Amino acid sequence: MSKFVIEGANKISGSIKVHSSKNAILPLLAASLLSSDPIEILDVPLLEDIKVLLQLLSHCGCDVKIEDGKLQITPDIKNGDINVDGVNKLRASILLLGSLLARGKKVVLGMPGGCNIGTRPIDLHIKGLSQLGAEIKLNQGYIEAKVKKLKGAKVYLDFPSVGATENIMIAAVLAEGETIIENAATEPEVVCLANFLNSMGAKVMGAGTDTIRVLGVKKLFGCSFVPIPDRIEAGTYMAMAAMCGGELELTNVICEHIRPIIAKFKESGVKVYEGENAVRVEAPDRILATDIKTLPYPGFPTDMQAPMMSMLSIAKGTSVIIETIFENRFLHVGELVKMGANIKVEGRVAVVEGVKKLKGAKVEAKDLRGGAALVLAALSAEGVSEVEGAFHIDRGYFEFEKNITSLGGKIKRV
Ligand code: EPU
């Protein structure tokens, strides 16, 4: 079990390139199973979650090769029984249900896992896939599902779930007839998946709006695809520079995707300059308090809530943060308090009374984004910190310590 040892209060400045988005790539991997030909995905950071999903694809029978970020998948489904170790390590494994059903396979799938940030039910996935004609049985610890041929249907989502929208889209592209997903998620990762499916020959329309229309096709073909940049990785590094008094340039950024994040940085007094596929931030003398409410896109992303809280813990004034997406996404609060932050939580609301400086402490990452938030806090704090549970952070930030070191931060993995 590795941990990060961080010597704080060093300036974070320089330039780095943002990696492709983990949450965009994971659905592409599941959707690769739909193709009859080999698939190539470029610029893939080999993060833990991506490695695990690739292992699951190999378990199904696919041939998987990755070299220098170039991923080649030759799809083949010999095995729809994936009630194996690994499924429970990440949330995105539930997307294999949609793709295996689309290929007419009988599926046995372990229950998906992922960060412990709430109950994370799968009812909307099950409802949508059932409406397309799948017979799905939930057992203790695993799911059984089968269908002869999925049939297009109208699916209304009670909540614009990112994963459920993706799963239904994946299932619908090879279904007979038309599927309409109403109250669909509009996140950039959903649009990226639609573009990927369309480049394989699918007919997906309206992704990025709340109504997605999918016209089923008979067959999908190979493609070569570049995923979108990681908007959360970008936001996390922006918060890091803002907290550590630096100037940072990020390349491979789609500013449109981080609009709500940029808005909140500007309210906090951070200078943000948008370029073409790039963004530059300049830290203010003192960060200013601002209020945040997490919402589905284009609202403020829940994945940026923890890094933002870390930043606002050293702001001038009081910030109110409301987490509306996940019911248990304040696990970092107790750890930030150990570092001298003044934060009180009442249900889904956190009140952050800014302090001048945080101080180094021994803390524990309990989930991915909360873990990253603690690294930011430690980088800005006086003294040395230890952040246990580095594996949580490895799930979502590729070459984290290498990037931080190149920007002037002092971080070691032990
Ligand atoms: N929900 C249901 N029923 C469902 C599905 C979701 O009630 O069947 C609820 C969830 O419990 C939650 C809300 O809907 O309260 C939103 O969940 P959603 O399905 O949108 O999230 P997800 O697909 O499980 C993805 C990302 C998360 C990110 C959320 C929201 C991946 C692999 N994960 O999760 O990323 O927070 O969308 O944007 O794409 C992370 O990267 O740290 C992370 C947790």
TrEMBL record:
Q: Where in the cell is it found?
A: Cytoplasm
Cellular component GO terms, alphabetically?
cytoplasm
State the family named in the UniProt similarity comment for this chain: Belongs to the EPSP synthase family. MurA subfamily.
The protein here is known as UDP-N-acetylglucosamine 1-carboxyvinyltransferase
- Do the record's keywords include Transferase? yes
Class in the EC hierarchy, top level: transferase
Q: Name one Pfam family in it.
A: EPSP_synthase
> Which residues are involved in binding phosphoenolpyruvate?
22-23
Alphabetized CDD domains for the sequence: UdpNAET
Sites bearing 2-(S-cysteinyl)pyruvic acid O-phosphothioketal, chain numbering:
115
Functional summary from the UniProt entry:
Cell wall formation. Adds enolpyruvyl to UDP-N-acetylglucosamine.
Which reactions appear under catalytic activity for this entry?
A: phosphoenolpyruvate + UDP-N-acetyl-alpha-D-glucosamine = UDP-N-acetyl-3-O-(1-carboxyvinyl)-alpha-D-glucosamine + phosphate
Where are the catalytic residues? Answer: 115 (proton donor)
Task: Give the taxonomic lineage as stored in the record.
Answer: Bacteria, Bacillati, Bacillota, Bacillota incertae sedis, Caldicellulosiruptorales
Tell me which UniProt keywords the record has, alphabetically: Cell cycle, Cell division, Cell shape, Cell wall biogenesis/degradation, Cytoplasm, Peptidoglycan synthesis, Pyruvate, Transferase
Q: Which GO terms describe its molecular function?
A: UDP-N-acetylglucosamine 1-carboxyvinyltransferase activity
Which domain of life, per UniProt? Bacteria
List the pathway annotation. Cell wall biogenesis; peptidoglycan biosynthesis
Residues recorded as binding UDP-N-acetyl-alpha-D-glucosamine, renumbered to this chain, are 91, 120-124, 303, 325
Q: Which residues form the Enolpyruvate transferase domain?
A: 7-403
GO BP annotations, alphabetical order: cell division; cell wall organization; peptidoglycan biosynthetic process; regulation of cell shape; UDP-N-acetylgalactosamine biosynthetic process
